[in-house]
Amino acid sequence: MSNFIAFRKGEVIMEEGSEGSLAYIITSGSAEVYKTARGKKIVLETLGPGNIVGEISLITGEPRRATVIALEDTIVTALDRETFESAILQDPDTIIQLLKQVFRRLSYLDHMITAFYEKDETADVRAAAGKPLQFRAATKEAERALGKKSIQITKTPFFIGRASTEQVVETRDLSLMDREPYEISRNHCVITFFRDEYYLLDAGSTVGTAVDNVRIGRKETKRNLPLKAGIHRVVLGGPKSQYIFELEIP
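The chain above was modelled as a monomer; its predicted structure follows.
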């Protein structure tokens, strides 16, 4: 079964803790995903057309993990398990794109918990609006990896990692070319927006990341750094890495 359902602005599409066997693909409009902890609302994501919600309950049968509300008049396509399983066989490319969203979401939430919630904090995490961020190569090696001199970043979270021909499901927004010995990990870092401020999170990379000469990573004391307005020097890899970029925050 697959059909369209319309929700008015502010209407609940699904509620945290409730039972449900349907997933919803946003066809038009937008939705906010949030959890409640200690009576406080924690906004996780703002989603638009093409995004899926409720996929975990569809696959596992578990209760809803978050509440989803319509931010404006929104239309979704309801997807049941039978249709989902049929699509796996008949249209695997579409399912791979949906699963990509699932993997990215789980990975992102894990990074956010590690970076910000270990100190028992609650906060509002959402996509930033406004002018795009500028990501520029600062060395020839960085330009080769990027394939151009610069790109614009218009959404958060934004995942950066090493390009790989072995990975069937692409979970990165930016894939950089690297060669052995690798400085860039497959899932290297994430640019996100947290408490009205941009941050760069190391995504558990092997060698680490440096932002304005401050090292972050799983082997370092810091896993994230705030990014004030201005130009920041970002080094992907170790101290001798030539994968040096400029990240301009408006």
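The helical segments are 55-60, 81-90, 92-117, 140-146.
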